[in-house]
Amino acid sequence: MKITVIGTGYVGLVTGTCLSEVGNDVICFDTDSAKIAALKEGVIPIWEPGLEDMVHRNAKAGRLHFTDDIEVATRFGTIQFIAVGTPPGEDGGADLQYVLKAASNIGRHMTDYKVVVDKSTVPVGTADKVRATIAAELAARGIDTPFSVVSNPEFLKEGAAIEDFMRPGRIVLGADDEQAALNMRALYAPFQRHHDRLVLMDIRSAELTKYAANAMLATRISFMNELANLAEKLGADIEHVRKGIGSDPRIGYDFLYAGAGYGGSCFPKDVKALIKTAALDGGMDMQVLAAVESANQQQKHVLANKVKARFGADLTGRHFAIWGLAFKANTDDMREASSLTVIQDLLAAGATVTAYDPVATAHAQQMLQGKGGISYANSPLEALEHADALLIVTEWKEFRSPDFDSIKASLKSPVIFDGRNLYDPKWVRGMGFEYLAIGR
Ligand code: UDX
Questions:
Q1: What string of DSSP letters covers 234-281?
Q2: What is the ipTM of this complex?
Q3: 263 lines ligand 1 (CB under 6 A)
């Protein structure tokens, strides 16, 4: 099939590349000409396991193309994916300007039947706006070319994006007409393993499904974080509690890890956007989600608060090592990362920090530009030099079984604040460390 993907961010680039991998002819568009030029050279703007090889392979095979020419892009695909950003607007709702701009470009240039696919995370009702925008452009051109609009939210996780796309647990599709559903079913046929993964529904339900999934997961995390804070006060261990409740199949083990708060490009943004949509379009106050959001804001400060409780509110002259900057392991993404809050809190209290991350350092440097008191190390051990304590913020594999003797020898005092509960407290304390984790 001929496919156009508008937007080469995380979702767009992964979608386009994986669709070319199964033999489709794909063109990826972006307004950022420098990014397109780089992609044509094989330079991938994001760090995602397996993506680079797949881009190179399919570009070489002539199935994957990149362009910054919107006319070329919108004329090309029978299926037009809109995978542009929906950043939070000033009021916390999703800003749809890029989505609607893509829709109007499709309407302006299309010459034959198109299935327009909303892949971006968009509020309920956006498909109607996309449809109206395209129809208005066609009317302005005085033509009546048929098109369909469908909603096909993406559930991929950063760090596992290729695997998630190639072997999806489910493919949610909101479609109001038979022709579009047929096209989409054919498109996803190569990704159906053993049984049909397509969950077909009306468009509004599909749009809400995306927010519902992320809001549910964020709720689990905030709930566990709150429970962890309580466990600490009561002398219980949240890790035991997690295993105890996770063994109930109605609860399950996944997404029950207490930590330093959730970050990333989806949960914080989508929770806020759903609260906004509910208020604006539903006249409803989402009480549970409001609590999820505010509990998460507080949780991001927990690690730095523990440091202050241990070393004093005034941290002048203190120096700390930070292991992990990315919002989670296996990504270089720093969006809404808890490390940003931790670092800002420590700096504001007068401390200095040295941070190490296997891949996110460059992005962190950009985001923390102009802030004094922070330096970056090239290895975990280098970060520890002259530090009063170690703070672990991201659960990178390489932090899971470190050389504790070297850590002890490097730190001024053997204190570890673990925002990811990576170690058995008994084990670490047995080696002479003061170990302050989350909820235990
Ligand atoms: C998420 C959804 O999982 C994905 O389906 C959707 O398409 C996009 O948003 P992602 O943002 O890549 O994916 O990261 P995810 O692995 O879900 O983690 C989100 C945040 O929650 C991270 O900061 C992570 O550290 C935190 N988290 C996750 C916890 O604190 N505890 C957990 O148990 C799980």
A1: HT--HHHHHHHHHTSTTT-STT----S---SSSHHHHHHHHHHHHHHH
A2: 0.94
A3: yes
The domain 239-436 is placed in CATH, from the list 3.90.1310.10, 1.10.3720.10, 3.40.50.2300, 3.40.50.720, at 3.40.50.720
Best CA proximity match to 323, nearest among 380, 260, 378, 382 = 380
Q: 2-201: which CATH topology?
A: Rossmann fold (3.40.50)
Predicted confidence (pLDDT) per residue in 424-436, tens digit? 999 999 999 999 9
For a mutational test of ligand 1's pocket, the pick from 220, 225, 262, i.e. the residue with the most ligand atoms closer than 8 A to its C-beta, is 262
Q: Which of 51, 120, 162, 217 has most ligand 1 atoms within 8 Å of its beta carbon, as the pocket-test mutant? A: 217
Q: Is residue 10 annotated as involved in ligand binding?
A: no
Active site residue 266: yes
pTM, entire model: 0.92
Question: What pLDDT, in 10s, does the model give residues 292-315?
Answer: 999 999 999 999 999 999 999 999
259 in ligand 1 pocket by Cβ < 6 Å?
A: yes
Instruction: Determine which helix (DSSP H) or strand (DSSP E) holds 419, and give its type and residue range.
Output: none
